[in-house]
Specification:
Enzyme class: transferase
Keywords: Kinase, Phosphoprotein, Transferase, Two-component regulatory system
EC number: 2.7.13.3
Catalytic activity: ATP + protein L-histidine = ADP + protein N-phospho-L-histidine
Number of helices: 24
CATH class of the largest domain: Alpha Beta
CATH topology of the largest domain: Heat Shock Protein 90
CATH architecture of the largest domain: 2-Layer Sandwich
Number of strands: 29
Strand content: 25-35%
Pfam family, one: CheW
Largest sheet: 6 strands, mixed
Amino acid sequence: MELTEIDNDDIEAFLLESNESLSEIERDIIELEKASVNREALDRIYRSLHTLKGNCGFLPFPKLESLAHAGESLISCLRDVSKQSLVNGDRNFTVTPQIISTLLQTVDSIRQLLSQIKTTKHEGSDDYSTLIHALAKLEQTQEVVSVLPSSLAPQPAELTEATITSSESAYIRVNVSLLDQMMNLVGELVLSRNQVMGFSQKHQDSSFKATCQHLNLITVQLQEAVMKTRLQPISTIWQKFPRVIRDLAIAHGKQVAVEMQGAETEVDKSIIEAIKDPLTHLVRNCIDHGIELPTERSAVGKLTTGKIFLQAFYENSKVNIEIGDDGRGLIPAQLKMRAQQLGLVSSVQAETMSDAEAINLIFLPGFSTSQQVTNLSGRGMGMDIVKSNIDKINGSIEIDSQPGTGTIFKLKIPLTLTIIPALIVNSNGDRYAIPQASLQELVRLEPEQAHKQIEIFYDVPVYPLRGNLIPLVYLSQVLHPSNSFPTPHSQLILVVIQADNYQFGLVVDAVEDIEDIVVKPLGQQLKALSLFTGATIMGDGRVALILDAVNLAKQAGIHEKQQLLASISSANIPTEVAERQLILLFQGTQGALMGIPVAIAFRLEEIKRTAIEKVGNQDVVRSSGRILPLIDLKNIFPGDTQPSQQTETLQLVIVSPNTELSVGLVVERILDIVEEPLTIQGIPSRPGVLFCAVIQGQITEILDVEAVIEIANPYLLQVSDRG
């Protein structure tokens, strides 16, 4: 059959299936190197190579067929030897490193052939006879073992049967471009939903409002469903690491084992693409700088085989990824010395630097601990690029290192980059969006408060927030340097932001709302503007730019300002001020008026009562791609009155007492958001109440959210503290 007669779709399907099989074959070959051979892995390799060989004969690709046949023959021989050893009572049959290396070389060659076929539709002119001969020679060395009994010999039907199970038929392959198109359409639907919801608030029509609520419910469900189709397990990246680790360990004379947990954790495809290179670099860094040589490890009482571990898990609507080793760890004094040698810090800076700051020196551009260039490091680029790539996706990276014990890189990344919750702010008449992942809290200062509390140190405006000095950045000044600072006669709104391990207050003109936005990439002409990560279209059709908190902090010089503030004692700065805060008011049991600071109330939602599920003794609901614990305040503050009639919908206040925990409080009715000073007027009235205050002439119970959670389910706080 001529190759030109074969449909391009057939070749595409062959390449896709072959590459998937090849990744599985490579993982199983690495599995064979363990102390006791995994016989199921041998069977899987054999079946995959047999299928690949059969497909090659159909297309035809003779070189690829010959190479697959040689590998299949060697694996078949190993299966025979393995089964014979099992019959003889030997359960510890092992495969030599030479066989493993040759099989991995075979995988590389097959991958090279597949790449050639994808590019040119032909196998190319490369000669693989030497490799085929090596495979045949290894097969001959294994054939000294007695022939298997016929009852143990594999039957042809076992190899060629291709029955499709019901679970396999439940899956289909979908082109990624189609998924991207669906996600774009859902994004447009979200924008239209936002516009329609805006109209419904202006028109008091009950039928129109009910239709809008139904549209909102369907849009949320569709958005979650489409996002799930784009999710990929993080194992798509991790599956390559055992091979990479093995090859690098051999090249550097080290012995390394790898452990993985949470490989099934799913992340959006766009995130997978963004973190692939950073994670690979961190793994290579652990081998080059972390794991010691066997003689070094033995000398300090460690096992000669070092360990690299990878862990992934969900936490608070984010994916946590930890990559670590049990190697030599980072020594702050050595890092300071190396940074001075490279001219990155002065001796004065090094002396006043904490251990945590010293460890973060490895993120500086040009920093490297290698004295010479190797194939792994030493070119003055690496960890700074890793951090930059993580920052681009609104993620964060931290280092936990103990000298002599090991190092752990802790990454926190969002589930998706396409649709995110963001705070909409106003500055100079323009609207901007700040991703909620960067937000800490909101503070509003009246003119007299601003005049009294904001002080200037070394030309840096600062504000005392609960005893800590935070530098202020005026957004209007950053975007329009010619603008003057606001006069003390106007109120100030501070958006407290955490970025690049620093906290600062962003001064804006007004705060509008928190809502889900659709991230649109910037055009080619605007990509050089590092202050913005993209744009979004608001409900009224206007465009709002999305601020990049990290680059905003860099441009405003937050790092330098924090160093200046570090030497300033805040003892003489007034901190006990009755700040006006935004308070969310709602009706509790028995008609009681209750309140929560808006700073910890991140979202208001309305859910159907039927959406509540039970996990153990805890009520939960699925919301925005996460499982949210629910606490009904009726159970915390029981009343003596007759129970009210159950409604079909429930009103939720989603609160986050800390960065690791979010819960949904079920309230009777959300009333209003007011701005009041939280002046204590009375002692707590009952458990779960922080204090009582007079708000708008009425006694209001201000809830102690942590105490409420402690009463309802103390395990939730224990888990968040552990994180």
